Amino acid sequence: MRKPIIVGNWKMNKNNAETEAFFKEVDAAAASENATYGIGCPFTDLRTAANNAKNLIVAAENCHFEDSGAFTGEVSVPMLEELGIKYCIIGHSERRQMFGDTDETVNKKAKRLIAAGMTPILCIGETEAQYDAGETEKVIRDQLTGSIADLDAKDVANMVIAYEPIWAIGTGKSATKEDAQNCCAIVRDQVKVMYGQEAADSVRVQYGGSVKPGNIVEYMACPDIDGALIGGASLKADSFMEIIEKTK
C-alpha cells in the first residue's frame, strides 16, 4: 500500500514569525502512522519550519542542480541538506512559466536531490489551452519523459509526482475527481512504460489544483491519487488541519 502524502505549498508567503506560529498550531495534528503531512515553504522560513516540525515534513520549494557557483539568488542541495531538509518541490508550473525551468533542468534537479538521499516532489501539468485542445495526455507523457529520464527505477519508485493542471492552480477551478483520477492514472502508466510495473505501483502521485477541505476526500478516494499538493488552503492553519483530519 502506498502511504498518502499531503503537502502544502506556501509559494511566496509567510515570514519566520508566521511560520513558527503555524507550525506550533498545526504540527501536533499531523501525527499519523497512516499518512505523511508537510509544508513546502520559502527558503527563508526553512530553518524555522524544521526547528518546529516534529510530525510535519518540511520541503523546499525549489533548488539548483549545481552544488555551488555563480548562480546569484539560487539555493543548492547541500545548503538544504545542512538544514535537514528531506523533500523538495521541483518543476512547479510557476517555475516553468515564469523562471525558465524546463524538463531538462527539472531532470537535473531530480538527479541531484536523489543523489543526496532527498525526495523530489516533481510537478507536471497542462495549460488551459492545452486542456481545451485535448492535449492533456500528450503533455503529461512528454513532461514526464523528459523530467524523469535516465533515473533508476527504484529512485522513481520512491519519489513523488504531483499532477497539477495549470488551469486549476489558484483559479478556484478544480478538476473533477474523474479527470483527476484519469490524469494520475496516465502518470502512473507513463512511469510503467519507462520503469516497469513495480515502480509504477510504488510511486506516489499527488493531485494539485484548488484542493480544499470540501473536495479533498473525493480526490483521496480515487485509486491512483495518493495525496495532494495544496496551495491556498495550506496557508490557514484551520483549513489545513481540517484537511489533515479528513484524510487521517
TrEMBL record:
The major lineage groups are:
Bacteria, Bacillati, Bacillota, Erysipelotrichia, Erysipelotrichales
Catalytic reaction(s) noted? D-glyceraldehyde 3-phosphate = dihydroxyacetone phosphate
Q: Where does substrate bind?
A: N9, W10, K11, G170, S210, G231, G232
Cross-referenced Gene3D superfamilies: Aldolase class I
For biological process, the GO terms are:
gluconeogenesis; glyceraldehyde-3-phosphate biosynthetic process; glycerol catabolic process; glycolytic process
Question: Subunit structure of this entry?
Answer: Homodimer.
Q: Where is the signal peptide?
A: none
Gene designation = tpiA
Q: Does the keyword Cytoplasm apply?
A: yes
This chain's protein is named Triosephosphate isomerase
